[in-house]
Specification:
11 helices; 2 domains; 14 strands; 332 residues
Length: 332
Amino acid sequence: MKKLIALGIVVILLFLAGKTILWSTRFMRTTGLTPTIAGSLVVGDGVTLKSKGDMTNILLLGVGGSTHEGADLTDTMMVVSLDSRKKSVALVSIPRDIWSETLKDRINSAYHYGEEKKKGGGLLLAKVISEDVVGIPVHYSFLLDFSGFKEIINVLGGINVNVSKAFTDSDFPIAGKEKDTCPGDPTNRCVYETIHFDAGVQHMDGERALKYVRSRHAEGDEGSDFARSRRQQDVLVALKDTLVHPLRWFSLLRVRQLRSVVAKATDTDMNLGELASVAKRVASVNDDQIQKISFEKLLYVPPSYMYGRYTLVPVDDWETIHAFIKKQLGIQ
């Protein structure tokens, strides 16, 4: 009898081991994480990241995609700075309309010009131009097509965003209608819609979140690029908060969907181990350790005849802006 019980226990253990191996294999196949990468993430911070001092800086870019005009112009530009010593994150928003003497154009065209010269050159040139603006080294870059941004949020079941100020935008362009005409309407109103956001925490799906971060024609201060940069920071924090609570969304199906969306809608110069290590560091940071940095007060709009279009340039000089950003980051 004892032998039968022992045999039964062995069979059960073998069955459980087989199920565990099968699940682990499916998980690695789904996520792309190898045992080596997974091990380094479990016992430590993951793989070694490029850095200067204690900081790893990543340029985050957002593009409209093929369904929008200027598909490869970066609508969002932000440096995410990870401080490994303080275990903190800083988000440095870069207004897309800043004038670059190197490009002889606004900085949101850097990715476009880089890709024109060489496939993959967009990320490199965007990093170089961003370094000129913020005055700190940019070690990695990550580009996201806004169609993928919507899908990621939808796969997660939406995100909760804290809207700090209510606003209404009566001139939000309807996707796909940018070149349409409105017969009998000289104002061409049929290509626009009105969107409104109340202040307070709101649950947003991908479409709603995208409108929140892309709105440019709201009434008052909320119509500025600086307000839009703040909203982009808010959505990133909300997305991070959702991702670090997997019980709200995790399943192998959703992991597969996320992996597919990210593969199709992103471009980066980070390998899988670096991506996973960045994700772990960001996930471990509490919201009160996330710093939002803007240098809007150090910029002004020069007369249009100077550059032939709407641009932003330093009130004083770039050295002043660099010193301000370094002080905010605690760089000596």
